[in-house]
Amino acid sequence: MVSQQSLIVLARPVVNELKMEDLLRAPAEMIGRGKNGSLYKVMLTNGIVVVVKRIKDWSISSVEFKQRMQLLNQAKHPHVLSPLAFYVSKQEKLLVYEYQQNGSLFKLLHGKF
């Protein structure tokens, strides 16, 4: 893992050079909202598209959040999308995922396109 300006980039070649400033400067489009937060489609300057999940009202400490993200990163399964990076502060918790063209699993399972 590489820490750059509080953005923790997990071992993923696609985003090894990703910085928090890249996410903040990139154009973003809200693509979903749910009980746990909002999803944004973000086009990075290098042409890579990622999804940023902004988690709200998840009252766990920064330390516990980091531990959970590291556990999530270790869980490998062909049908589970692992995060590319995450960011945590007192006010903000963000997860960065690879963008998936077909949308969410919920939409696929329940036919809501």
Automatic annotation (TrEMBL):
Q: Which residues are noted in the entry as ATP-binding? A: 53
Record keywords: Nucleotide-binding included?
yes
Keywords annotated in UniProt = ATP-binding, Kinase, Nucleotide-binding, Receptor, Transferase
* Residue span(s) of domain Protein kinase: 25-113
GO-annotated molecular function: ATP binding; protein kinase activity
Please name the InterPro entries in this protein's record.
Answer: Kinase-like_dom_sf, PRK1-6/SRF4-like, Prot_kinase_dom, Protein_kinase_ATP_BS, Ser-Thr/Tyr_kinase_cat_dom
Coiled-coil positions: none
Q: Which PANTHER family match?
A: (WILD MALAYSIAN BANANA) HYPOTHETICAL PROTEIN, LEUCINE-RICH REPEAT RECEPTOR-LIKE PROTEIN KINASE PXC1
Name by which UniProt lists this protein: Putative inactive receptor kinase
What is the protein's species of origin? Trifolium medium
